Amino acid sequence: MSKKNPNKSKTTSGIELKSFYGKNPPGEYPFISGIYPKMYQDKLWTMRQYAGFSSAKKSNERYHYLLKQGVSGLSIAFDLPTQTGYDSDHDISDGEVGKVGVPISTIDDMRLLLNNIPLDKVSISMTINSTAIVLLCFLIVLAQENKIPLDKLKGTIQNDILKEYIARGTYIFPPKPSMKLVTDIFEYCSKYMKNWNTISISGYHIREAGATAVEELAFTFSNAISYTEAAIEKGLDKNIFTSQMSFFFNCHNNFFEEIAKFRAARLIWADIMKNRFKISNKKSMMCRFHTQTAGSSLQANQIDNNIIRTTMQAASAILGGTQSLHTNSKDEALALPTEKSAQTALRTQQILAFETGIPNVVDPLSGSYYIEELTVKIKNNTMDLINEIDTMGGAIPAIENNFQQNKIADSAYAYQKAIENNDQIIVGLNKCQNNEKQNDTILSIDQKSIKNQLKRLKTFKSNRSVDQVNKQLELLKIAIDKNKNLIPTIIVCIKNHCTLGEICETIKNKYGEHI
Q1: What's the CA dihedral at 203, 168, 114, 479 to 10 degrees?
Q2: How far is CA 143 from the centre of its chain?
């Protein structure tokens, strides 16, 4: 449904429209007005909906529902044990299985999760970081089982560990070996999965933690610089691996600032690639990004208001030129979204696509004095902050000195104080309040699904050869000691029924744990 823009080159009054009204042609360096010449006139953004429930089976049912509703890309949310390298039956997983996403411990879980999903036709995005290499290997094994060539797979693995140290906290290993795992993915995918985005460098979680728009861009691009430097140091071709790098941004409430932020992001990345790294590949200079509306802006009070917030944020992202978009559901301040609220969130994108005329012109706000000046100021302020991080030795030394973390904490505190002082108005929270009771149905965690997950995992472990599992884990230890790319070995581990937790524990025993 989101493949083409069906609207024409006229308004409803019959006024002829130009394709573009600005000065800097879209699709050309520095890409300020968009990375493609005709943007949404040729192809609409990918409409994604992020979902993961208390079981692989229930998640699969939601994915099929979303595909029937017109979603063109799936985004998978994983539970905390999966994100931090523990199987569902580990003691530390107790109480967290299936809470914030789907639990994936085995290849059987992955088979259930993506059952009857056409992996060669549907773009799959996986929001996973410290265990990204294992989840990618699960997907590779599944594709091989279904005889789907790896170069036919389209999608993204988040694989952005640096922002975990800055803003989110689901790290396992220390930064240096974590960067090695990141670049292993770069290397493998550049050879075998050329249509796959090997990383989604995320400003989203940085913004959710309280960063400003400028800090979101600066910290994201500083991380991107570190990934690029690490891959070059590994000996990878910079014109190849950078073409598979993508970004993930937040879209918050300040309508015009967010539009300008996305335009500035394209300028900044194009400049970094061309002038800092001397990269000639045009695709590498394109800041390709997914956007999600701001979860932190959703309010538990008067949740219907969240539909309006999401609509305005989605419009900003589209006017800013996003390639992919997830719209939050109104009830996500309270629980995982119901089917009905997820449908409304998707319909928000479809109305913007098919009823508003926004996609009919490339960068419709190009030439606005306000937008153009905001774009330049955001770019300049972002570059000042990137340069400050450079003087510290780059993103990793700055993280080790808590520079980004302290900046975010200060910004989050200032924003919260502004709300408490009524300098920042939040409708339904500190203005226009009412005492009506919330009558909406919200989704609850299915405890039966969690019990079934644990039962299936027990059966999986009891039906395998423990000797074969131990043999493959020993081979993984040897691959780590020899500093090999770990993906081929992990694939063999999975085919021999090693679990996510066992693979991660083996890596942890070699690399250590970041505290």
Answers
A1: 100
A2: 22
φ, ψ dihedrals at 366, nearest 5°: -60, 135
Helical residues (DSSP H) of 355-402, grouped into ranges: 369-391, 395-400
**Cβ contact 329:344 at 8 Å:** yes
- Write the pLDDT tens digit of every residue in 406-463: 999 999 999 999 999 999 999 999 999 987 766 677 777 778 999 999 999 999 999 9
Q: Note whether 260 and 378 are within 8 A (CB).
A: yes
pLDDT digits over 193-229, tens only? Answer: 999 999 999 999 999 999 999 999 999 999 999 999 9
- Give the mean model confidence (pLDDT) for residues 68-75: 91
Asked if 259 contacts 209 with a C-beta cutoff of 8 angstroms, the reply is: no
Element (H, E) at 289: strand 289-293
**Cβ pair 500, 87 in contact under 8 A:** yes
Write the CA distances from 261 to 207, 258, 292, integer angstroms.
12, 5, 14
List beta partners, residue 291: 249, 325
Residues near 481 by Cβ (< 8 Å), separated by ≥ 6? 510
**DSSP readout, 196-217?**
EE-EEEESHHHHHTT--HHHHH
> What average pLDDT score do residues 456-481 get?
98
3-class secondary-structure state, position 400: helix
Write down the residue that tokens 């994936």 correspond to: 104
Task: Find where tokens 């192809």 sit.
Answer: 43
Q: Binning pLDDT at 50, 70 and 90, where does residue 1 land?
A: very low
User: In Å, how far from its chain's centre is CA 514?
Assistant: 23
CA-closest candidate to residue 396, choices 181, 165, 213, 241: 165
